[in-house]
Amino acid sequence: MQILVVGTGYVGLVQAAGLVTLGHQVAAVDIDDEKVEKLKEGEIPFYEPGLKELVEGGLHTGKLTFHIGIEDALSGMPNPDVVFVCVPTPRRADGSCDLSSVFAVAKDVGSRIEKTILCVKSTVPPGSRPQLRERLNNDQISIASNPEFLREGSAVSDFMRPDRIVIGTENEEVAEVLEQVYQGIDAPILTMSVESAQIAKYAANTMLAARLSLVNEIANIADVFDASMADVKLVLETDPRIGKAFLRSGAGFGGSCFPKDVIALSDAARREGYESKLIDPVIEVNEKQAQRFVVMIEKRIGPLHGKRLAIWGLAFNKGTDDVRESPSLRLIPLLLERGAKIVAHDPKAALNAKKELGEAIEFAEDPIKMLDGKDALLVMTEWDEYRGVHWQQVASLLSAPVVFDGKSFLDADRLALAGLSVYGIGLCKEATNGL
Length: 435
Ligand code: UGA
Prior knowledge:
Low-confidence stretches: none
Number of helices: 17
Radius of gyration: 24 Å
Strand order of the largest sheet: 3-2-1-4-5-6-7-8
Mean pLDDT: 96
Distance between the termini: 64 Å
Helix content: 40-55%
Bound molecules: uridine-5'-diphosphate-glucuronic acid
Number of strands: 15
Strand content: 15-25%
């Protein structure tokens, strides 16, 4: 099939390169000319495991082309079967979803293409279809919704092996075309109305974010009673109705999607007269978690003024260089305000963090050497390379053998055996031997 993908961010680039592996001819478009020129050379503007190889493969076979603007892409592909819209839908100051980029694409597509399917992958609120139809101003173009469920850091494998593919359409023929697009992927295809697909996307992110905030609140309460969240988690995860995933408490979740989507869902409902009681606090709880983490650190090692702290992890998630809404970047200003001195490491995100933090902290290349003489280690991103370090060496370098786990992902027993005391929200594991 001939497919146009508009937007080459995290979603669009994975979509474009992924569709090529399914055998399609793909023209990918962006308005950022510098970015497009780099993409033509196989240079990816962000880190995402496996993506570079896919893009290079597509460029090599000529199945993937990059273009500045839709007009240029259409010169080589005048009648695309499907146009996937993958442009940003950021949060406005009032919480609503800014659809201006999506509308601009619809206007462009409507005036330049006679007949196609405009399939929106960008996360857009329910109720926006009539506005989209107005911008399209072309009855030959069908509107569809195909929300993405890609996690940054594992987006390529999420594309290849999704839990489900959701297709929201205005009619059955369109659903059949979109099903063909994904032929070759082994996953259930769930077809529904455009509005149901739009709500489903918000529902999935809101459920996940709400689960994390609830887990964090339970961990906060566990702390109040000196209970162990690790034990509570064992009980929760052995109940199949609750399940094992997304039960790690800590300094809060990050990323650009959850906060934006959760607020946009409650905003969309409010505009239609439905006042949600549960949704807004999901974000309020999350934003306070970094403060709670600081209080917990102070409780364990005393006032932070003059303390030398080592931080591992600046990205909001493992496998990405994205620091947007990262818990680590929410925490660091709070530590600096209290007079702590910070040296930080991240395998991929240091450069992006530096753009945000400037000279306020020191950045280290070597995660082990940087620990020498530090008063504590804070692990803020669940990178695999942090999990498997030589903990005895860590203990011997730190001036006090104390580790704070901001994502409840470390093996606390192993650390305790190495002589390290591990603390986190709902987590307290004292060292079992003195070294
Ligand atoms: C999320 C959803 O998981 C994707 O399905 C969705 O497509 C995407 O948003 C989006 O809307 O684009 P993402 O935010 O990239 O993906 O990453 P997640 O793996 O969901 O992690 C979100 C945050 O939760 C991270 O900071 C992670 O460290 C944190 N987390 C995760 C916890 O704090 N505890 C856990 O137990 C699990």
